[in-house]
Amino acid sequence: MLLAKEKFRxxxxxxxxxxxxxxxxxxxxxxxxxxxxxxxxxxxxLGSYLKENNSNIIEALWTEGYDPQPVKRFEFTRPDGExxxxxxxxxxxxxxxxT
Length: 99
Prior knowledge:
two-stranded antiparallel ribbon; alpha+beta; single chain; about 10% strand; about 100 residues; about 60% helix
């Protein structure tokens, strides 16, 4: 039973970290645009960052050593007076989260 679970985890990890899947997620995050996170990186800068750091990110995900960064938080008031809290992930963490 343990071998079947471990095999399933490995196969799932391979599908998640598949090059095509990662590209699909990157395109999705880029199309959604959005604000930069706490590190200040914009969605426009994401492509070049991922090209330079993709092997490190994939390795961290593969070994379960990836740690998401703190989120950017702020509160705003809607036109109806309701206060809302918003958390903005770093753009790299958005890619990781959506894989």
